[in-house]
Amino acid sequence: MGINYGRLGNNLPSPSRSIEFIKTLEAGRIKLYDANPEILNALAWTNIQVSIMVPNQLISNISSSQAVADEWVRTNVIPFYSKTLIRHLLVGNEIFNFYSDEDRQTWYNLVLAMRRIKHSLSTYNIRNIKVGTPVAMDILETAFPPSNGAFRSDIAVPVMKPLLQFLNRTRSFFFLDVYPYFSWSRDPTRINLDYALFRGNRTYTDPRSRLTYTNLLDQMLDSVIFAMTKLGFPNVRLVIAETGWPHAGDIDQIGANIFNAATYNRNLIRRMTSKPPAGTPARPGVVIPTFIFALYNENQKGGPGTERHWGLMNPDGTPVYEVDLNGKRPENDFKSLPAPLNNELYKGKIWCVVADGANSTELESAIEFACRLGNNTCDAIRPGSECYHPVSLVSHASYAFSSYWAQFKQSGGTCYFNGLAVQTTEDPSNGSCKFPSVTLRG
């Protein structure tokens, strides 16, 4: 089993200390989101296999110049290769999630950049580093039933087909970020939670392939396998580049708790380390190298609360919950887990208010941002209006945050404001001042 080591946090230990923590987890692989030299040096003379990454913004430059590719490899691979087990070189990360004209050009430059990087490695006589790119499940246009899996029409022929040709020719892997949590949480009434957590005896039989599934992850993996097969590449091997389950989140995020996170990851590990290998119904008995997301909670990531709560370890090296990456420890050997309290959708009103300890200068900027957007977002806190009193930065910011979120939640707006805001079920309204809210109906 592998672990993803992201570093978007201001409270994380040093790379050398982090590598010591990773050793205590007995991870066999580590995936980085860059090629940080301090981390690569800390991994020297360990038996941990390493994946490094070219940032998205360099893809187009590398695609247009072999010299740029050579320089990247010379700087980020060659100094470490003799002592650190670099085994995967990933070009970009989930680039198909972005849709501007510049992003689309990056899509079309991807495979050429990968070829140039591969050529650079060959120039240095490096044959044992596989070149790939991690993609998310949004590469699929259809995913259900699994046999109906097909790539998005905008990328299938112009990008995915040459990508698969490259991976097939170089005997590399299709790196996939796959999260049953997101699929289940979007439709918890139709998808059974135990099925997403590898629990219970529920099964699903694909009406076309007649393959029977016992868990949601296998369904998702096979939908990608069927999509690859439709393009003529049935045998390109999979790597799960990211998977996991959040152990906390916002009030409106169902099922993000320690019980579910521990259950998912423990069962995932047992499945992926089983001997003989389990594979999937479409590829039984095939090993699927797997990286759990993530080593730490990353408190500087934006977006919903779950984004900051995927870690297996706290910054001091203590576990958020116990796991055994070898998959040998029996379930009854772990400490008991806290009961899940949010496995059903919250019903009622939620407000977005200032978090404890918020910086006043940052609050002023956040109010300005919130009040610029939407319709009459901050009219109620103008002088003489119903929410002007109390004349307090925190009170005005809480109103602005709630008003903004009430307007923009449906279109992807979050109650975060770079860590300045939190959700609450306690109504902050006072007297004639009524704070806007988000109402969840379950």
Write the layout of secondary structure elements.
Layout: E1 2-5, H1 15-25, E2 29-32, H2 37-42, E3 49-54, H3 59-64, H4 66-76, H5 78-81, E4 86-91, H6 101-123, E5 130-132, E6 134-136, E7 140-142, E8 150-151, H7 156-169, E9 173-177, H8 180-186, H9 193-196, E10 204-205, E11 212-213, H10 216-230, E12 237-243, H11 258-272, E13 290-292, E14 347-354, H12 360-372, H13 393-408, E15 421-424, E16 438-441
Parallel strand pairs: 1-2, 1-13, 2-3, 3-4, 4-5, 6-9, 9-12, 12-13
Antiparallel strand pairs: 7-8, 10-11, 14-15, 14-16
Structure write-up:
With 442 residues, this protein is of the alpha/beta class. The protein has 2 domains: 2-333, TIM Barrel (Alpha-Beta Barrel), CATH 3.20.20; 348-440, no CATH class. The protein contains 13 helices and 16 strands. It has helices at 15-25, 37-42, 59-64, 66-76, 78-81, 101-123, 156-169, 180-186, 193-196, 216-230, 258-272, 360-372, 393-408; strands spanning 2-5, 29-32, 49-54, 86-91, 130-132, 134-136, 140-142, 150-151, 173-177, 204-205, 212-213, 237-243, 290-292, 347-354, 421-424, 438-441. It has a 9-stranded parallel sheet with strand order 5-4-3-2-1-13-12-9-6. Strands 15-14-16 form a 3-stranded antiparallel sheet. Strand 7 and strand 8 form a beta hairpin. Helix 4 (66-76) packs across helix 6 (101-123), helix 6 (101-123) runs parallel beside helix 7 and helix 12 (360-372) runs parallel beside helix 13. The longest helix is centred in the N-terminal third of the chain and has 23 residues, at 101-123. It is globular. The two termini are 36 Å apart.
